[in-house]
Amino acid sequence: MPESGIAVWTQDGPVAVFYLPHRLPALFAISHTDPFSGANVLARGITGDLKGEPVVASPLYKQHFSLLTGVCLEDDTVRVKTYPVLLDGNQIRLEVRANQRESIAA
C-alpha cells in the first residue's frame, strides 16, 4: 500500500518496509522495534516528511525516525537499524546481513 509500511520477519528479526511512491528511492526498511517501548510497531506508524526527510512516527510515543538514517529526530542519541532494500521484479530484496539476502514476495 502506498504511503504505508508492512512488517516482515527476517533472520535479523522484525523489519518494517515502507513504500513511498512519491520519493526516489520509494522503498525504505528499518527495524520494526520501537526502541523507546521495545514493542514491534514501527510498520504501523504514520509516514511523512519533516524538513525534506522521509520519516515514520511511532504509533506509541510519536517519536519520528528517519527512514534514511534511522535516527530519532527528537533524540539523536537513539536510532533504529536501517536496511538496504530494492524492488526486483515482483519481489522486494532486503539485505539483512553482509553477503546474505532474503527475498520477500511483494
From TrEMBL:
Keywords: Nitrate assimilation, Oxidoreductase. The keyword Oxidoreductase applies. PROSITE patterns: NIRD. GO terms for molecular function: 2 iron, 2 sulfur cluster binding; nitrite reductase [NAD(P)H] activity. One of its GO terms (biological process) is nitrate assimilation. Residues 2-94 form the Rieske-like [2Fe-2S] domain. The keyword Oxidoreductase applies. This is Nitrite reductase (NAD(P)H), small subunit. It comes from Marinobacter adhaerens (strain DSM 23420 / HP15).
